[in-house]
Structures are given as C-alpha cells and as structure tokens.
Amino acid sequence: MFKKYFREIEFCTYCPKMCKFCCPVGNASGVESYSPWGRMTLLHMVREGIVDFNREIAHTMYQCSGCMLCREYCDHLIEVPLVMIAAREKAAIENKLPWEVVEYFKFWKQHQNPFGDNLSARVRTLLPESYFNQDAQVMYLPGAGHIYNNPSVIQDTFKLFEAMDIDYVACYDGDPIDCGTTLRELGLRKEYGANAAKLADKISRCKVVVSGSPAAVYELKVEFEQMGLKVPPKVFHIAEFLWPMVKDGRFDVRKQFPQRVMYHDADYLGRYLGVYDEPRSILGAVLREAPVEFSRNREKADSCGANGGLPITNPDLAKEIAKARLAEFYESDATALAVACPDAQRIFQSVDDNIEVLDVINILARCI
Amino acid sequence: MRKTTPGHRQCLPDTVIKMPSRFKGNVEIFHRLKEIFGSNRVRNSSVETLLYAQDISPESLIARRAGRAASGADFIVRPVAVEEISRLMRVASRWKIPILPYGAGTSRRGSVAPLEGGIVCDMKRMNRILSIDDESLIVSAQAGILGEHLEHELNRKGFTLGHFPWNFRASTLGGWVATRSAGEALTKYGGIADMVVSMQAVLPDGSIVKTRTAPRSATGPDFNRLLTGSEGTLAIMTRVKLRIHVRSRSVAHLSFRFKKFSDGVLAARQMLHRGLRPSTIHLFDKSETAEFFADSKLRLSGNMLLITFEGHESRTEMESRIAEAICSDYGGDSRGEEPSQYRMEHRFSRAFRTSPAFSRKGVIIDTIEIGAPWSSIQNVYESLAKALSKRFEICAFLSRPTSQGAALTFTITAKATKESDIDLHKNLWDKAVKAVQSSGGAFIPTSGVGLRGAGLFAEQMGAAHNWLKEVKVEIDPNRILNPGKLGL
Amino acid sequence: MTLKIPAPAAPEIVQKLIDIVGENNVSVSPVKRLLNSRDMFPVSLMHHAEGVVEYFADVVVWPENAEHVAEVVKLAKSIRMPVIPFGAGSGVCGGVLPIHGGISLDLKKMNGILDVSAENMTVVAESGIMGQTFEMELNRRGYTLGHFPSSIYCSTLGGWAAARSAGQLSSKYGKIEDIVMGLEFVSPSGDITQISPVPGYDSGPDWKQVLIGSEGTLGVITKVTCRIHPNPESRRFVGFNFPDAPSGTQAMRLIMQHGLRPASMRLYDELDTMLVGSKGAEESAGVGLADFLPVTQIETRLRTIAPGFFNKAQRFVARWSEVANLLEKFSKDGCLLILMFEGQEAIAEYEYETAVRLCEKLGGKNCGPDPALKWFKNRYHVSYKMSKVFYNGAFVDTIEVASTWKKLIPLFEEIRDAIRPRAFLMAHFSHSYDDGCSIYFTFLSSAKNSIEAEKAHRKIWRLAMEATLRVGGTISHHHGIGLSKAEYMVEQHGDLMNIFRAVKDAGDPDNIMNPGKMGL
C-alpha cells in the first residue's frame, strides 16, 4: 500500500488541507483525524515509523464515505478513498478490523448479502417467472439494496420495459446476487474477490448488463475489469439505458408528475461513473417544472454518507451526513427528493421517513 | 512597564517541539472535562492528540519528512455551547493547563502548536449560521464554521462576505478573526477586522463578554480590534457578527502585461489614488506569471496586472474605463479578460505547490508576506530578490493594495544541497528579515503570527508589545490561553 | 462674586517642569490654569454661567516635542501627579476637566506637519496641530484629510485620535480610526513608541485601536500618521424631501448598501425640517433650534434693559417644550435629506446620478441643490449658537447614538418619546454605514438654577442612555465618554471593562493619566 500510494500519501501530508471544506465526514464530525489530511497524515506517520498502525489508526481509516469530493477539489487529483481501502485491507490482513466490520462480515458470510434473507429467492417473488431467463443477452442486475428495501424500483423498471415493448431484458436471480461493494469498501479484499469471481462467472456471457444500482455498475465496469474478470462488454445504469428510449418517444408520457422534485447526484453514479445528465433528462421529460438543483450538484454534489462502509462503522455519522444534505431540500419548495441509487434512497428515508424519497425509475413509471 | 532589549529577536525555535507534558494521564482533569462536554466530545487518545499537533508550517513538514513529529497536547474537547467553554476556562485555571483554541489548523506559523501540552479546544462543532439581518446586512455565525461554508450559504441567499484568504478552503471564521486575516479582495471589502461588527467571546476567567452591535462607537478602546488578531491568547471567540454585502451582479476582468514590474506597481498605485475601488488587484512578476499560468492554454509571460471590479454594471464599466486608461499610461498592454478570469478560477491553487515541493527530498517551499507603503514597495521587492535569488527560486506578486501601500507575497523554493533543509530554511528567513527590515517593509503573515512569527511581531510592535504582555498577565494570570503565541 | 482659585503646583515641581520644557512653557497663572480646565461639557457650562468653576489644573505645561512629553510624564509618575493631555478643549463630555487637579499638558506647541507623502498618500503631523490649520495646509498642497468635525476650528489632531472623533464627511472618508494609520505615543512610564511603524500593515491585535479613543487615560499621543486624499475634483449637491423618518432612513440605507459613498448624507427629522424649511432658510439646516429663540443683537441689548421678559421667553420654550414639540404636527414638510458627493469627477458624477435616481424611485421629492449647498456653507455655524443659549439661562446638549439599520427607527422613537416631555428636541441622522447609522439629538431646556438644570439634564441623559442600551445601540457614536457617560461604561461593555482596566493597570499603574474618566 505504501509503495502503491506513495505519491498520494506524500502529497496529502504536505498539503495545507485544501479539501478540508468538502469532506462530509470531516465536516459532520469536526474531527481533524477524520478529514482526508488527517487520515493521510496518519498513514504518512505510520510509514515513517512515527506511530504504529494500531487499532485506533485502523479505525480512523474507516471514517471515509468514499464520496470522492476530495479528488474533485484537488489539483493533484488524489483519490483518497482508494488509499483508505488499501489501508483497510492492511487492517484486515493484520487483524485490526473494527468490531463492526468483523460482525458485518460474519453476517455477510452467513447470508451472502448485507441484509439477510435469500435475495435471489426474494427477487423471484417480485416479477413474473418469464422474466428470469438466465440465457438472456441483456440482463438486469437488481441491486441488493433494491431487492430488500425498495423492490418497487425493480418492479417499476420492468413495468417501463413492458410499456416500451422491451421483452429482451431478463432479470438476474442467480447466486451470488450482491456485487459485494461493501466488502470491497471495508477492505475485505479476499472475500470480495471470491464473490466477484463467482458473480462474473454467472453474468459474463451476457452482452449487456443494466442495473438500478450505480455501485453494481461501478463494480462490474471498473473493479471487476481491473481484477481481470470477464465482464460483459456493456454495463449501464438504468438511467443511461432508458434515456435514449425516452428521448425517442418509445413510450407515451401520459401524466406529468405533479410534485416539485429535487434531484440528488449519488456518489457512485456521479463522481465514480460520470452520469449526471441522463437522470435529469428523464426527470425533465416527466416533471411539470425542471427539477430543483442543490446548490452543490453534479460533480460537486455533497455526499449522502451511505457509502464507504460508513453506515456500518459509524452509522450515526453517516446519518448526520445525510441530514446535512437534506437541509437544502427542507429549505426548497420541492416536495419529493429524487435519487437514482438504492443506498442514497435508503439513508435519506432512514433519516426522515416523513419525506418522499423516490427513485427516478419510480417517478418515470408513474408517468406512463 | 518592563523594557524590552532593543533589537530583540526570538530565534526560530526547534523544528520539533518535544515537551514532556505535565498532564498526561491526569485522570481527574479528564473526568472534569467529561463532566462538561460528555464523553463523546472529549478525547485523550495519543493518536489523535499527536495528529492535532502537526500543522502545515514548513517546520512541521520538514520534521515529518524526516520522521519526526511534534508532541501532542493531552486532551481534545469539542464544545457546542459557549457555557462549556466558560466552564473549561475554570477547569484550566484550576490546574493551570493550557487551552489551545483550534479551528482548521492551517496557520503557517504554528499558531496552534501545543508547547506545554494542554487541551485542544476544537471549535468546529460550533458551526452554525445563527441569523442573517438582511436589512442591516449583518450575518451572525458561530466561530467554528468553515469559512467556505459561510460564504457558500451567504451566496445562496444572494450575499457575500467578500473574504478570501489564501487558505479559504481550510479555515474557520474564528481562525480568521483570531489571526486578523486578510483576503484578496481587501481593497474593496477590507480585511476581517473591518468586517467584524461585534463578537461574543469567553475570557480566561470564564466570563462571557460581548461587544456592542452597532456600526461604530466612541466608547474607549475598540475591543473588537484588540481581540481580532489576538490568536487565542486573550479570549476564545464563540460568535461573530459580520458585515455582508449584496453579491455583485457583474464582475469585470481586466488584464495587462507590463515589461517592468515597477510600471505595474505605479499603475496599481495610481488606480487607488484616483479613487477606484477594484475588488482585486494582482501584479504577478515574471516568475509568478510563468508558474501560475503554466497549465493554462494562455501563452503569457512578463509581469501581469490582473484586475477585477465588482458591483453594478454601470459602475464597473466606468471604473474599468478609468483603469484601462491608467494602465495604458504606464505602458501596460491589454490582454483582455481571460488571464484575470483564469486567475480567479484558480486563485487558491498556489497552495497546491507545497506538496510536490516537499515530496522531493531536501526541497523546501515557504511563503513570505510583506506589507509596505508605496514608497518602499519596489525597494522591498528588489532587496528581497537580491538577497535570495542566488540560492532560492522566487515567485512574487503584489496584491491587496490600498491608497497607502500594498502587500507583497513571495513563494520561495530551494533544494538543500550541502546544508540540512532546516538550516536552509533558517538561512532563508535570516536573509529575508534583513532584506525586508532594511527596505521599509513589515511582515504580515495572514494566517497568524503564531509561534514562528512571534519574534518579528514583537520587534514590529516595539514597546507596545511589553504592554500587551502585561495585559496578558492581568487577564490570564494562569497562562491558560495559547501560551507562547504572539510572544506572549 | 470672586472665583475661588486653589493653590497651584508646589514651586519645586514647577521648577522641575521648567528644567524640562523651559520657562516659557510652564505657567501657574490662574488665567492659564482656568482656561485649560474647561471644555464644552454642558454641565460645566451651566456652572460657569453662574460663575462656578469646579476644577483647576495645578499647572499648565507646553511641551515642544515627544521627549519633553516623556520627561514630564516620568516626573508626574514619580510624584503621582495627574497628567491631562489637552488639545483645544472642545470636547462635550468633560474629558479634560482636571477633577483631581494635576498638570494640563497642552500640546498646541507641537503642531508641525512633518511629512507629506504623495506616493503613499500619508501625512505625519504632530498631535497639537489645530484641525482647520491642518486641513488648510493640506489643501494648499492639493490634499484633504477628509475629517471635518464641527469643531474643526477648535480641535486638534491628537484630540481627534484620543476621542475617536468622526467628521461630517465620514461616510466617504472614514472616521478617525480609518484615517489614522500610525501613532507616536508616550506611555505613562515615559516610553516613546511608534505604533504601526509601517502604516496600514500589521498583524496581531491592533494596538492603535486600543489607544484611539482612550481619551488620555493611557498616555499621550504626540504624532499621528494619517491617510490623505487628493482634493476633490468635483462636488455635487442635492436635497430630497421624504415624507417621514422611516422612508428617509430607508433611502440612506439603500444608498450606502448600493455601494455609494456620499461625502455627506444627513436626514433631518420633521421638526428640524419644518423650522428650517426644505427650501433652506437663511441659516443652515439643523441650526434653527437656537434661531427659534429671540436672541438677536437687538434683543440682547433689550435683555439688559428688561432681563425678566427674555428669561421668561426662554423658559417658555424650555418648559413648554411639549407644546413646542407639537409644532411637528403642523409640519407638512416631511424630512429633508441632503446629499453631497465629491471626488474624482466621473466617480462623483456617477454616484450623484445614481443616488438621485434611487431617491426618486423611493418617492423622494427632488429639492435641487440649494438645501445641501446651504448646509455646506453653514455647517460649522451650529457651534456659534451654543453661547446664545447658555447666555440666556437655558441649556442645550446633544446625544449621539448609533445602531444597526434594523434598530434605528425603534431607537429613534424611544429616545424621542423619552425626551420630548422634558425638552425641546430635534434630531438628524448622519454618519451612515452599510450596516447602520448614527442619530444626533439636540435638546434644549431650562430650569430655575444650575442645580435644577443639572438634575433635569442628568435625567434626560439617563432616559436616553437606558433606551439605547435597552433597544440595542451604542451610547456614543463619536462624542466619546469623558465624564458625562462614564457611569454607563459598564452597561455598554459588561465584563470587557476588565480588559480596559487591565490595559490601564498595565500601562498606568499609578493612575496618573487623566484619572477619573471613562469609568476606569
């Protein structure tokens, strides 16, 4: 890790904290050691032998939501989350995992997903049997979070397919179904790799994979690729997949969504995958007024705190971050918050179950 | 009053501060602190206290590059209410344990370095905007708010504070006020001291004080201006009311190239003397131009004078025309808007030069900020260049002009060859001090005098420094507030 | 009635002073001592009108340079004799009254202009230079200080800095603390220090701003470095009529917040405007107060013939002030806002035109330049009126407070309602900022004798100060504290007074510098 990320650790240590203002974890906690500078400086001191890589430092490495805002504002384009994951892998190897991570992994191992329940079986209850054709060339990979928390997104997706006469997309119900993002984020590289290999094996024969989970798209497109696994040639987020069809008028937008909607760019969809326009365009097609924008949006969007394993290692902090993000929503005249990510949807709803948090797919589906 | 020895100058202290702490493991203090702050907001971990003791001063970077680190304080507390700080003062007084107020820790001169252990008082949990009076154009905010967040929130509501110091992205409002920081738009908006309407603070005896919220008073000393710049040695600020402005609808950009730096200086001065109030003026010397625009598509060289005007369009147009005439009179070639626009978009990027420099073995980089009246500016620039150019690489720019003078900022790099990097850095400052003092300038570190700047500060303040020292003894007899900083 | 004059300073002390500054520069003459023991504090004027002088300096000393000052101060410290720095004695707060006797340190011989820098737009002058002399010399060289208190004919640069003064054109040129860039200061232990030796550029606490406004309680200002400006190329004047104070102050606020910097912007309340008239009476606006009193030359002669008649007339005005104040109800003239812009031609023109457009948009009636021109021509005349009032057995005083815009009208109304039953009252708003404004109240009243007058005067002040502290504002915008407001310092500053006391104790442990002032 120290060799691979030598430059990153050097540069962050000597930097006058230029990303201080944008780190959601640093801001929500006010703790210096939870800021990018803090964490990287600690790693530097470990490397130089000033401190040992003890449990406390290992725990500090987990105080990062992986949102990549630090890179966004860094002239040197340092990607601190990647260094964090490498440090967490070191913690795993050296048996210095935070107890929350150990507990999480135990649970995951038991269920092969973060939620318990047989998700593959669950997804089969959501849609008619005909959709589960494992030989299909175009496969919809449901996010584990959607299956467990917001199955309506999956159902609405297929409702949309139906409305557009798309019958060639099948829904994946194989095993494994969780792409293991959280495993990777928590530094459980070995287990992640094993799971990834199995998943890749199952879907590699597809030509196109579509998912409503930006993290899943990222895993396949980037991480699996990097590991040398065979990956379908085209992997899309559902918004990328659907927008061209909506644009072409493949289906009748019969109703106009009556509420004022505010759109939040999820970290994985935005800064990791670079998808900003398609969800907005889809919303633009069905909303009466253009979606309300956060003052910090697109590449600069503040994080919801749902990633990086933070909800596991520091759930209160993750919720603080989500709450902070909601402040502008409360101030605006929007009555619904639109996202295109199951993790964002889950954390916002858990912070305030009185607000309406909808996936872009839900909104589109209501308008056909 | 005790007299000071003439020519007193504190040597640059050791790079690494290693002091045995008297309070390590003091269970009773820890217990008392937990009573005040709750166990969530008190920490005494050696890792965390160690991290808080590292700052971004060149001395700290040099040390850590060599595998050494300054000793940490003993505890870290995170207050959320002013009463907690009041109680903290009383605990600290009882045990005579120093308190180190901490914002974002981006002083370049060690303003938050713990010299004798103590309690770091991290203000960042007191970070709310309390109110915006849009009739009087005053914002009230807690001292721990990050400056960028404050400005962003004001922008959202159509206002601006107009304060953009070099470390804008990593500094708190309390840090700004405590270090009397100056932003690049000082010419139009003033420095932080001009923006403060009133503040709430806690004195070392625990009393909570407030200055009067009124535009101006003739009621004796201006306590706002005594506490502003006191760097946590006289009080801990908790809440500040600031003057804000309606955000300008129009920004005009002008850029001019000058063959000679001195001509650019004259043009800048003349603009101020004619009554123009640009929001920013920057005059880059040749090296700074080359360095700053290196990654841009613009092909620029020479001394670049970059000007912005903000305000109502008719006004900025009028002022721009006058400015153009003046610059042309002094031999400036217009280069349109782009160079100035580029500068504004990348105005904080200079801070990114530190990392590549320090990651090269033996290399040091430091920033020296000097204020001088117009009559000395060219002299200061030339003297410093002359004193340093043999051994050091220098980039310089002029900014924050007023009718009386301007600030010169030098970014200085060098690679240690025969000597150690510490000695090289000392050599740099020795030469710089001689050159600046003999040419009529003053050192004005905008992110705090702190520890390393204390000697020069005391010298510049003269006999009044002794007076301030005695005031400190009276107000803070137990020396609990940031002892050793500002030379107090 | 003979005035009882206390004994002067002991001969040994006088000799020691002569050894320092020379025989010409020391005096124990009763006349000199008397004249250096008074200022324009209305309460002492009331007493003087009855031939009572309460305080006497023991000796008057005229230093000629900072070294003299240092030696005198050191001597005074060694014998614990008070030292009261004295400029021209125009303060209205009793700031230079030697309530514990002592040395009146008259700085008027230190009145040189030492350096004028065109490059830096600065001037260095000795603190004893008279305001108008200073300004005229600067004008001659093509500059202006931009500082025009109404006492400019009779106040010194050092007095300005010590008292934290503001001039009538402060909205453009700033207050004294904006003008003063550096000081040479003699501390009570006799150190001569340069504060802010590189003017305008320093770090750390602003020690200059501890000394400015300290009213002689911390030491002696001997030299001041000031910022100057080129003489204005052009001036524009205009007067506007607004229906009432709220609409007028709103115009002032919007003009400042627009980014304009009028040299002068003053709004007169309804009564003031009515007495003077928007069209501009013969005398200046805001001065009609004294003009309302029948005290012309002829009347003064008549007074000696029939004093009773005129005393009654004064008292009618003063005692029936409530009735007099009702005149406002007949006022149809609204409030007069006068504006003056000056400076570089294009900028002054731009600001003038923008302000005119703004005022018109806000419903102001353009009265042309005359009202403003009249004000400008007569802007110092108010000071001449004071004598007439006191001469006729009444008293007049001013209360000047300031607050944010939000609190301005509530503050104005509270003070006005508190004073109206007790005195004839007029007010104007001036010294505007982006965030607030100052209110200047002038009140006139009278009583049977000076004891009653003092009581009434004190009562009015207490009501006004309490209102200010309650509503939220500052008890003095530019007149200072001195004696008159010393009792309110604790309420104004709270525990911050401990810092002031710490500064005082550290610098002047023997309390020789202007003791008994400012609540210290």
So what's the overall shape of chain A? globular
Spatial gap, N to C terminus of chain C: 35 Å
Stretches with pLDDT under 50, minimum 5 residues of chain A: none
The counted number of beta strands of chain C is 18
Strand order of the largest sheet of chain A: 2-1-3-4
Largest sheet of chain C: 7 strands, antiparallel
As residue ranges, the low-confidence spans of chain C are 278-290, 292-296
Strand content of chain C: 15-25%
The top-level CATH class of the largest domain in chain C is: Alpha Beta
* Domains of chain A, number: 3
Q: Which chains share the greatest interface? A: B-C, 89 and 89 residues
Please list the strands of the largest sheet of chain C in the order they lie side by side.
Answer: 15-12-14-13-17-18-16
Number of strands of chain A: 8
CATH homologous superfamily of the largest domain in chain C, by name? FAD-linked oxidase, cap domain/gating helix
Query: What is the oligomeric state here?
Result: heterotrimer
CATH topology of the largest domain in chain C: Vanillyl-alcohol Oxidase, Chain A, domain 3
Short summary of the structure?
With 368 residues, chain A is an alpha/beta fold.
Molecular structure report:
The complex is a heterotrimer of chains A (368), B (488) and C (520). Chain A is of the alpha/beta class. Chain A has three domains: 96 residues, no CATH class; 142 residues, Rossmann fold (3-Layer(aba) Sandwich), CATH 3.40.50; 114 residues, Rossmann fold (3-Layer(aba) Sandwich), CATH 3.40.50. In chain A, 50% of the residues lie in helices and 8% in strands. The model of chain A has no long low-confidence stretch (mean pLDDT 94). In chain B, a hairpin with a 4-residue loop joins β5 and β6. The longest helix of chain B has 18 residues. Chain B is globular and about 70 Å long. The N terminus of chain B is likely disordered. About 3% of the residues of chain C have low confidence. In chain C, α3 packs antiparallel against α20, α13 packs across α14 and α19 runs antiparallel to α20. The chains are: A alpha/beta (368), B alpha+beta (488), C alpha+beta (520). At the B-C interface, β9, α9, β11, α12 and β16 of B face β9, α9, β11, α16 and β16 of C.
